[in-house]
């Protein structure tokens, strides 16, 4: 379960970033390298399991699968961006 | 309407390095080698207790994302041993087929993404892909074919959900296997090419002397190249039924690592994995694989662990050949699974995970609740042999600059494809000379 520490690492980072924002986190966007040792489906499943019962539950996860095996980050999983909605509704 | 904003992050999710190698040496030689694994205890054997016997294959599959089928196979065979259940030949054939898929997935990942960059002098597969794009593309194509087998039989590519004690939840119709055939035929050709390419890599010369030779241990079966069944055999004459495993093998706690070390009682270190299977079962490989080995001049017995990449590639070729044989002779089982009734009992099984012998033993009560579980993975069985190899090799490498020494050690560890993060990531190297400690 090497992927478990990877997902935990990712979720912790999202928690950290979201806690310093006053708005509500609604989506996270990841880039999945062509040679990353995990499929998008597998990554999503683990991620969704990891956030059950946490403030991140329900977060929309967008995974962009990359196809370039020559890319410098081809073996990596990158947290690309986070999307927030104004929690005050104004 | 709520306003939204997006913040850019570009943060890399990483598995931390979880292995360290400690070497103590002086001019008189290498005195101590310790491979440390930092992974925290995972308590799988503990939290299996109280769970239903039917859950064991799916829970233990979570031990590894690279070889979940191996854990499922050992678990369900152990449960069937406890219950006196013998799967039909048709169900056994399907289990062998899904195991072929896993061998292909796992071996190909190791050959192309982890081990080949070592031989060709690249720090990673990404760096290797810049100069050798075709090689990496071929590896990905082969792996895809393995994924297709596991997905079809297991319901998904990783952590399959379709196997169960007694058989499968659902078995495919013959017509579902046919489209796979074409993909496997093409991939088998690529696998044959891989064998020739792997054999052309530059191998460090490393063989132990006759009196210090490895004891190779693998399942052995009179008719089959071993996957799901057989007796436990070794190159020093061990030949026992799996039920006697606990009398011959012992796990030891070593103070410097969380991983247990497994030893053969009274003999010590032993060697499991593709080379052990190959050396003990060469004549059960298919004619195509033996012919391919002969064509490249690869002998039926190999004791240079750096050449394990060739053995792995031969096993990938075998897995395709075997998968095609099973598909061509496929008879859909009459029932997807045999019914089971729990009873108070104990059962065990060993199967051949891609990395080697994987032993499971369970006790269940009359309601089918697990009361005791023991799981011995291949990595813990090889760990002593990995340290022994390093002890043998290091005197030749110690003159090297530290970065080159580290690369040599990583390559030697990767010969075994150990299932720890240091097999894929950074290994911390601690050198101690004449009482000084450097890192």
Please give the number of β-strands of chain A: 3
| Order of neighbouring strands in the sheet with most strands of chain A | 2-1-3
Greatest interface? A-B, 40 and 38 residues
pLDDT averaged residue by residue of chain A: 86
Helix content of chain A: 25-40%
Report the helical percentage of chain B.
40-55%
Number of helices of chain B: 13
Mean pLDDT of chain B: 91
In the predicted model, the low-confidence regions of chain A spanning at least 5 consecutive residues are: none
Rounded to the nearest angstrom, the distance between the terminal CA atoms of chain A is 43 Å
Low-confidence stretches of chain B: none
Structure in words:
The complex is a heterodimer of chains A (90) and B (439). Chain A has 90 residues and is an alpha+beta fold. Chain A has two helices and three strands. Chain A has a three-stranded mixed β-sheet with strand order 2-1-3, covered by helices on one side. In chain A, helix 2 links the parallel strand 1 and strand 2. The longest helix of chain A has 18 residues. Chain A starts with a helix and ends in a 5-residue tail after the last strand. The model of chain A has no long low-confidence stretch (mean pLDDT 86). In chain B, helix 4 crosses helix 5 and helix 5 packs across helix 6. The relative contact order of chain B is 0.19. With 439 residues, chain B is of the alpha+beta class. Chain B is built from 13 helices and 15 strands. The longest helix of chain B has 32 residues. Chain B has a four-stranded mixed β-sheet, with helices on one face. In chain B, strands 6-7-8 form a three-stranded antiparallel β-sheet, with helices on one face. Chain B has a three-stranded antiparallel β-sheet with strand order 11-12-13. Strand 3 of chain A pairs antiparallel with strand 1 of chain B, so a sheet runs across the interface.
């Amino acid at each position: 379960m090497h992927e478990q520490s990877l997902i935990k690492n990712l979720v912790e980072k999202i928690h950290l970033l979201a806690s310093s924002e006053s708005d509500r986190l609604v989506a996270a966007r990841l880039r999945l390298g062509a040679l990353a040792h995990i499929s998008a489906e597998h990554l999503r499943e683990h991620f969704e399991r990891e956030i059950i019962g946490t403030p991140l539950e329900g977060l929309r996860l967008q995974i962009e699968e990359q196809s370039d095996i020559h890319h410098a980050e081809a073996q990596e999983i990158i947290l690309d961006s986070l999307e927030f909605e104004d929690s005050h509704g104004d | 309407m709520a306003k939204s904003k997006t913040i850019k992050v570009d943060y890399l999710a990483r598995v931390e390095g979880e292995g360290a190698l400690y070497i103590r040496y002086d001019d008189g030689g290498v005195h101590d080698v310790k491979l440390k694994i930092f992974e925290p205890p995972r308590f799988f054997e503990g939290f299996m207790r109280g769970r239903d016997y039917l859950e064991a294959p799916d829970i233990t599959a979570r031990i590894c994302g690279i070889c979940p089928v191996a854990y499922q196979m050992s678990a369900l065979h152990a449960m069937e041993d406890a219950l006196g259940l013998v799967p039909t030949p048709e169900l056994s054939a399907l289990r062998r087929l899904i195991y072929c898929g896993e061998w292909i997935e796992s071996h190909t990942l190791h050959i192309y993404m982890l081990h080949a960059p070592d031989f060709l002098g690249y720090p990673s597969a990404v760096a290797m892909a810049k100069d050798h794009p075709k090689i990496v593309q071929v590896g990905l194509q082969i792996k895809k074919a393995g994924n297709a087998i596991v997905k079809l039989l297991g319901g998904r590519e990783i952590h399959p959900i379709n196997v169960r004690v007694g058989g499968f939840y659902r078995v495919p119709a013959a017509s579902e296997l046919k489209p796979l055939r074409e993909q496997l035929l093409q991939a088998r050709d690529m696998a044959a090419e891989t064998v020739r390419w792997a054999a052309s890599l530059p191998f460090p010369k490393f063989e132990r002397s006759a009196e210090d030779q490895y004891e190779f241990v693998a399942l052995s079966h009179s008719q089959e190249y071993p996957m799901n069944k057989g007796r436990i055999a070794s190159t020093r004459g061990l030949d026992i039924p799996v039920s006697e495993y606990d009398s011959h093998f012992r796990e030891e706690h070593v103070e410097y690592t969380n991983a247990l070390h497994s030893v053969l009682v009274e003999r010590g270190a032993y060697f499991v994995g593709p080379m052990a299977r190959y050396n003990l079962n060469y004549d059960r490989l298919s004619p195509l694989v033996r012919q391919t080995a002969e064509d490249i001049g690869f002998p039926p017995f190999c004791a240079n662990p750096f050449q394990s990449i060739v053995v792995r590639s031969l096993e990938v070729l075998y897995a395709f050949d075997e998968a095609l044989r099973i598909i061509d002779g496929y008879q859909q089982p009459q029932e997807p699974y045999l019914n089971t009734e729990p009873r108070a009992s104990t059962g065990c099984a060993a199967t051949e995970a891609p990395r080697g012998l994987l032993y499971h033993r369970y006790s269940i009560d009359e309601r089918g609740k697990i009361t005791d579980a023991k799981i011995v993975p291949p990595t813990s069985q090889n760990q002593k042999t990995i340290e022994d190899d390093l002890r043998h090799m290091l005197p030749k490498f110690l003159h090297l600059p530290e970065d080159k020494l580290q690369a040599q050690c990583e390559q030697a560890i990767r010969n075994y494809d150990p299932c720890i993060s240091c097999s894929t990531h950074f290994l911390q190297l601690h050198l101690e000379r004449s009482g000084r400690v450097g890192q």
